[in-house]
Structures are given as structure tokens and as C-alpha cells.
Amino acid sequence: MRKIVLALLFIASHATLLAQSPKVVISDKDGWHKIGETRVDFKREIDKIPIVGARRFAALKIKVTDAPINLESFDVVFDDDTKKNFPVGTEFKVPGETKVVEFGGEKNVKRVDFKYKTVAGDDKAHVELWGYKTNK
Question: Are 64 and 95 contacting, i.e. CB atoms less than 8 angstroms apart?
């Protein structure tokens, strides 16, 4: 019985990780890069996108497609495990995007955690994470 419970927990945790899709960022060119995406299922109301590869960014923005969401806030987690919270509190119509948030120079970003509320409807929102490189 214990093995079955552990197996189910393992499967559930990996299914959650598969919902987020980090892009492996291989370019260090200046400009905007799509660095991750997720399909918001309105069950958890919290999603995390890990950043893989060349993860130094000076700014981030979030784009929403397919269905509206009410984005409460997002936390940017840096390599040293410090977090910076960005309150949003906006319902995004489709398509929509946040304002650009700047870090005051390039920093290594480990992941971004989203907190959102469900908006009426059956469609799942597609959320994209974009990072800006300045190489400064």
C-alpha cells in the first residue's frame, strides 16, 4: 500500500512539472527572448516556470493568450534564492501582457512563480514568460 501511495505521489509531482515548459535559452544576443510558458489550468492557481540555460536578464514581461486570467502577482527567484515580488492585480483580456519589470541590470533568474485567480470560462490560458537581455 505504501509503495502505491509513493508511486502516485511521484506521478502527480511529475505531471505538475510537465505542465510548465521552460525553454532552454541558448542565445545571449540583446533583445527579447521567450524563456518559458505554461498552460494555466485554474485548479492550482499557482504556477512556476524554471529558467534553463543563459538566464541573465535585465527585465521580464508576461504575455497571456487563449483565455483571460486575473494575475495577482509574480515572484522572480534569483540564483541566490532571493525573491522579488511584483504585484499586478489585473485581469488580462486576450491577448494581453504585463508592463515590463526591470531589475536595474542583468541578474541570473532561477524561476518565476505566478499567482492568479480563475476567470469564468472553460478555456485554459496560455502564459508566456519573456526575458530581455542587454549584455551589460
Answer: yes
